[in-house]
Each structure stands twice: as C-alpha cells, then as structure tokens.
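Tokens for chain A. Residues wanted.
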C-alpha cells in the first residue's frame, strides 16, 4: 500500500471535518493533495484518518489487517469518546457492516439468502407504479406554488426509495416518515449529543415493533424471511443482530438512493449537453447513474474501519486502532484514477467507481438502488423534459453531514409536461 518510499506518521495538523458537510469537493481536493491517508478530527475532537485516493482506498478496504468490528476501536475500548458522541452508532450497531471474518460471512449469508435477485426484480412494477404516483405529486406541488417551484428531493427523490425499502422490509406506511426523521438524525454529524442516544433508542423501538408485527403475521417480505432464518437456525441471528440489520437496511436502503437520484438530477440540470447525449441514444440512463456515483457519490466519508496493526498507507502510518473513514466523493474525482478531467461530469466515461464499496463489504443493495434510480430518472425527464433548477447551483445548501452527500433541498421548475 506504499509507493516504495518510507512512510512516516504525519506531523501536520489534522483537518477538522465540517459537520455541516459544506464544500465537500473543495475539501476533498485539498485532502487528496495532502496524501492518500490524511489525519482528520471528527466531532468531539476525536482523531481519525481519511483515505482520499482511489487506488489506496481500494487496497485499504480489502487489506487483511483492516477490521470493521469496533472491538478494534482504541478510543471506544478505552472509554475516551465524549458523551453522546454523534458517530457512535456507526461503530456499535450490530450487523454486517460492523462484522469481520466468519461473523460477517454468517450475517451476510443470511441476508443474501433472503434478499434474492428474484425479490429485487419483483419490486420493479412497484417502483414503476410509485414513480408515476410521485410524479403526479411533484406536479401538484409545483402547481400549488406561486412561482411554480417544487422541492424534487422532498416530493420525489425521498418518498420513492423510502416506500420501496419499507415495502421490501414489510414496514407499515405509518412508520415511514418517522423512520426517515430518525435515520436523518443518526446519519447527521450535527445531531446534538443529547439527541443521539434518544434517536437510537427510538429507532430500535420502532424496528422492534416492525419485527414483532412480522412475527405475528409473517409475509413475503425481507423481515419475515430474516426472522424465519433466525428461527430455523437457532442462535445464528440474534435479536440485536436482526434489529441492527433492519436499521442498516432502512438507512442505507433509502438515504443512499435518495441522494443518488437528487445528485443525478442536479448534475443533469447543470450539464444539459450530457442530458442530450442520453436523449439522442449516445448514452443510457444507466450511464448517468454510474457517472453520478463517481462524480458526486451519495456517500462521502464513510465510517469506520480500524487497522489491527500500525499500517502504512501512502506516506502515512495509520496507528493501530485508529478509526478510518473512506471518502468515496474524494476517490471519485482522483485524477490518478480518472485523468485530468476527473472533476467533469461525462456520462460516456464508462469508468469504474467504488461508491458501492469494494471487497467483502460491497453493498448488497446496489442492484435495487440502480434499478430505482434508472426508472426514476427516465420517467422524470420523459414527463418533464424541460425540468431545471429553480435556483443557482451555488445556492443549494448541503445536507448537514460529511457522511451523506447531497443538498438539503432541490428546488426545480418542471416546465411543460410531455403530452405523450
């Protein structure tokens, strides 16, 4: 993971990550220039490292001396984290994303057996139906506004993946809004310390109610399938692991796709020439999704991994037990991987990206996210071919997190609807 030079531990001051998520791409440019692994400060002045470059990120997440289990997190183990630390859930939730080795294989196998390609494909007509309904809602919101402006994120990009993941998991509609609010608090790096444990407790309680309902009345949903797998195999899936798995799937299953759809629409509105390439057949909606994932990843600094020994990455030695974030937004614009035009949105690029992860922990939900986003974009721009941003791009305010990457709102004007 080095270039042959002798790595040294950085003596330069760490970069303090902005919990508001402001200016992420400009920050990433600075961090990449500093090195492949850069010391950073997390909220509460917790020291950490960020991996900023494509190849080093790819190598790091598959390195045999890099772990996901928080038992390797030195500051957590030594009780050195501040009370109510807003990022504690990322480290301590029980599930695939915080498991290693045989434990990870066991949990991933249980989810994989339930989250089958057949189950994902069965959601395709549901996605089409929901998309049509939400486009009607978006049109009504724009018509009701004196300036003809609607928040595409709120009325379209959010409810689509939230409805789909709840349908997949067998979650009643009554829980949807609250689950989104709670997941927003958990993902945000600006959540007040006193709210962190409360939001986590409520999320666990709500998902416990969901699991109890599916035990009482099993259905053809992922939660019922996971419960059945647990009961068939005895102690292979604990209650804590079941709830942790549901929590991760709710958050990852809608936040990531919400940001992906929002970022793709934003990019197309700012690059009309690329939209015309799709309309002319020179590129596909799938190409738009892949380039958006590279150019403006829905996840920026993703926590956490921990070296199990002092580990050289580029010119830096990351100490054993330090929390490490991998920056997908930074790696996606690394000129070493994508050339001097890495910061240009180009749907014909065809370059591979790392935004769904790499190696053993690659995202299981990637096929569903891609399907939802392709259906959503094609339907949106077919019905509203003149859709455009209603404010200058620089006025868009980022979501208050350096983990998620997307604007809080995406005000658009729809233009004339297609009559076909």
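Reply:
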């Amino acid at each position: 993971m080095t270039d042959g030079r002798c790595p040294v531990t950085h003596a330069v001051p760490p970069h303090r990550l902005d919990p508001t998520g402001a200016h992420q791409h400009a920050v990433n440019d600075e961090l990449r220039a500093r090195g492949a692994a850069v010391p950073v400060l997390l909220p509460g002045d917790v020291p950490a490292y960020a991996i900023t470059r494509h190849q080093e990120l790819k190598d790091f997440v598959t390195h045999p001396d890099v772990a996901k289990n928080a038992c390797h997190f030195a500051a957590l183990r030594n009780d050195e984290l501040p009370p109510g630390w807003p990022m504690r859930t990322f480290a301590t939730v029980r599930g695939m994303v915080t498991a290693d080795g045989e434990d990870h294989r066991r949990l991933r196998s249980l989810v994989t057996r339930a989250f089958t390609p057949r189950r994902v494909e069965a959601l395709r007509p549901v996605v089409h139906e929901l998309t049509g309904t939400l486009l009607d809602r978006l049109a009504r919101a724009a018509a009701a506004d004196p300036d003809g402006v609607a928040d595409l994120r709120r009325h379209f990009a959010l409810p689509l993946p939230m409805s789909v993941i709840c349908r997949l998991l067998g979650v009643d509609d009554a829980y949807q809004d609250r689950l989104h609010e709670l997941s927003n608090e958990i993902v945000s790096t600006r959540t007040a310390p006193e709210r962190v444990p409360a939001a986590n407790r409520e999320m666990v309680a709500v998902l416990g109610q969901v699991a109890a309902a599916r035990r009482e009345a099993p259905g053809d949903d992922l939660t019922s399938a996971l419960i059945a797998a647990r009961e068939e195999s005895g102690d292979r899936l604990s209650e804590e692991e079941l709830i942790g798995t549901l929590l991760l799937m709710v958050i990852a299953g809608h936040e990531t796709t919400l940001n992906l759809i929002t970022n793709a629409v934003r990019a197309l509105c700012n690059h009309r020439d690329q939209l015309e390439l799709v309309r002319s057949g020179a590129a596909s909606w799938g190409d738009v999704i892949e380039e958006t994932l590279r150019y403006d990843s829905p996840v920026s600094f993703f926590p956490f991994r921990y070296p199990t020994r002092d580990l050289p990455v580029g010119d830096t030695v990351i100490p054993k037990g330090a929390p490490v974030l991998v920056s997908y937004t930074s790696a996606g614009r690394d000129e070493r991987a994508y050339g001097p035009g890495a910061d240009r949105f180009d749907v014909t690029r065809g370059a591979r990206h790392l935004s769904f992860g790499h190696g053993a922990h690659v995202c299981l939900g990637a096929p569903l996210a891609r399907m939802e986003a392709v259906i959503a974009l094609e339907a949106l721009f077919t019905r509203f071919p003149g859709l455009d941003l209603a404010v200058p791009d620089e006025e868009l305010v980022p979501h208050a997190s350096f983990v998620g990457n997307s604007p809080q709102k995406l005000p658009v004007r729809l233009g004339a609807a297609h009559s076909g």
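The CA atoms of residues 114 and 226 lie 7 Å apart. Confidence is low (pLDDT under 50) at residues 2-6.
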